Every structure is written in C-alpha cells, then in structure tokens.
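User: Show me a protein chain along with its predicted structure.
Assistant: Here is one chain, sequence first, then structure tokens.
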Amino acid sequence: MRKFVVTAALALLSFSSFSQLVSLNNDEIKKLKTQIKNDGETQKLYLGFEKSALNYLTAQPNPIDTIRTEGLLKGNPKKEKTRLALADMNKMFALALQYRITSDQKYLNKCVEFLGAWAKINKPNGDPIDDTNLDKAIEAYDLIKKDIPATDKKQIEQWLTETAWAEINSKRMKAGRATAINNWNAHRLKEVGEIGYTLNNQDLIRWAIDNLKSHININLYPDGTSLDFKERDAMHYHIYDLEPMLKLAIMIDRAKGANFYTYESPKGSSIKKSVEWLIPYLNGEKQHEEYVNTTVKFDRDRARNNEPGFAPGTMFKPDLALPVLKLSVYFDRTQADLLKKINNNEATWQMVLDEIQRDSKYSPNK
C-alpha cells in the first residue's frame, strides 16, 4: 500500500466556504431551533441538554496524552484514566451545539478551551479503536469551525490532521495484518473520513472512500455475514464493524457522493445486505449465543474478567443493535418501526438530532 506523507499545505486546508457534513448544517440548526420552540417533546429534551451544557461551563478540560482502551480489560488503571478523560467528548459537543442554538459566545469560548487543551496534550498513536472515541470532539469542531480564532483553529486542525495521518501510516494498516481488514479498519476509515470532511481535506476523503470500497469487499460477505462475525462468533462485533461504516456512508451521502449503503463490491457484498442479515435476530425470528466459537483470546480474557456480555453462550440482545439501526434508518426508513420497538419508543436528544439529519436527506429541496 502506498505510504501517505502529510505536508503543511495538506494539513491546514481552508474550508471557510465548506458546509458541515459531519455535524448539523446551518439549515438543520434552524430546523432544530424551530422544533425546540414549537414541539413540546423536543423542548422537554432540550431542557435537559441545556442544563448539562450550562454545567459544563464550569468544568475543566481533562485531556490525556494517549487514549488507551484497546486490548485492556475492565479495571485496568490506564483504561480507567482514559474513561474519565473521554467524558470531555460529550462536553465539547454539548458546548458547541448550545453555541449554535443560542449564539452565546460563552459556550463557544468554553468549547474552544476544551478542544485546545486536547489538541495541545493528546498525541495520536494510530490506533483506530482508541481514536474512534474522538467522534464527538470532531463533530464539535465541525459545528464551530467557522467562528473560532485563527490561532486556536490552526492548533486544533493540526491535531486532527496528525490523528488522521497517523491512522493511514500506522503499522496496524500494513497488508497481512488482521487489523488492516477487520473492525479496526472500519473504525480507521470512519475516523479518517470524518476528519477529512471536517477539514475539507480531499486527500483524506479520497483515501477513506477508496478504502471503504475495498473494506466492503474484504470484510463483508454476500450472505450478509462479516469477517468479524466469523472470527468472533458474536453479533456484538458484526455491529461494531457496521456502525463506523454506516457513519462514513452517511457523510459521503451528505456530501452528495455515492450511496455506499447499497453499493455492492465485486463479490456481491454490501452494507445493506449485512444490516438486513441482522434483522431476524432483532425481531425475534432468530437467536444467537455469543462468543461460543470465538477465535480471539481477548474475548476469552474478558469472559474470565467477568465483563458483562462476554461469557460464551450469552444470548444476543436486540437492543445491542441500536447503534446500527439508528444509522441504517437514514438510508432505509422502513426500519424506523423496528428502531422504535427495540428502543421501547423512548425519545432521546440524540435521536432528535439524528432525525433532523435524516429528514434533510429526504427534503424536497435537496
């Protein structure tokens, strides 16, 4: 695989006229504000969000130099330190979104403080299972990127750009390694694409799209199963593999690119087929005992560590597929009823945001 080298020109591209594709765009923010004003349920959910955002104004950033979650068991001190630090991700996103809703500068300033602290301290190590935790920070930056000071913008962009290129040039990406074709790669592609679209870095975007095509061909099978399901014998990992692919597919669609939900690889595999393969296990037609035949030692280690859900023979629970359904319904609205059923018709603030993005896709003005 060709090795990519980042240059200063590529690292800090101008995107002043580039719309938000990772987060809500201007029209979607306007719709959200109208919905908060006129819809009682949305207003109720917003009040809880607003309270949290207000509390975050007095919080202090807690960046960590290296995110460490991958391969560590529950209770590991490094993993626990990371867990505490990653609480900053939702804080950044809430502050950014509240700024866009209210135009109140104090939320912008606080979000920039958090992002700047992470940009200064955090050093990317090219591990997609660790870097996948940065989603909300990237979304936060996408929301406010047009409104922040040049110095802060340069520092944050440099951090994000280095994170993306660390993924592309990582030893974990080398041909022949399992981490170049399994769920690690799905998260790698999503992270690179997410940063690419946020910074309007066309090299990152092209790399993510080209490699998504090859990943669908290698990782997914025509019958709807996946490499990760075969290796782990667990719906958990089939879902963990599909979720980042769906996120990237949505970004590409919002950028008016190809439909990677229905895209079929040369061997006939597709994200759509792999989502639909799950459906019988979600509506109760089929059941599955997780991890019975896993080939991965880490799964057995977690079972011995008594981590919930990892004991061989644990029955798959349909609600574990919510992360996939919440995304796949963007492409297939017929799945909306199943999503509501599995989610027990519970409304959440995030679901409000997701629905606004979905509605944009089907807007007659698009």
